[in-house]
Amino acid sequence: MAHQGKELIEIPVLGVHTVNGCRKVKKLIKSIDYPIKNVIIMNISNDLALQRELDELVKEGSPYVSSMKAVIFYSNKGIPFSWDFVTKSFPTEPYWLMSKDDVLFTPGLLSEIAEATKDKELSLTHPNVSEFNVETCDLFAITEKGVHEIGLGTLSKT
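Request: output the structure for the sequence above.
Response:
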């Protein structure tokens, strides 16, 4: 697949956790402008109505997403648990992109992330937050090297 003259390598996995409804997740999915192999949406509540909405969203799909699934955790085990779930669900991928449900991808951001992850020395990458220039865990990509160096549970403390 080509994108503005470049050969694209799909982002292997995007994990999105949600607890507060499907509206934000729909907006996130619609903002995807770069190929993603697997999207896994994690309902970390016990809300069956939300799960039905997410299942419908999965059926609608996205032209940029090869495979999309929605799973429900019947209790909120915490965000680090959902990150761990994603890495263990796709253990052979070179990196995992994690996102909160209220993230919207600005045009070209996913392409920039995919490009950054080509660096074999990379452990973790994420955008800076506006003019404050601070790191965030709202959206980040972590490599296998990063999981070994940092661990997933420690990311929630940054």
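Strands lie at 2-3, 6-7, 11-18, 36-43, 65-72, 95-100, 124-125, 139-143.
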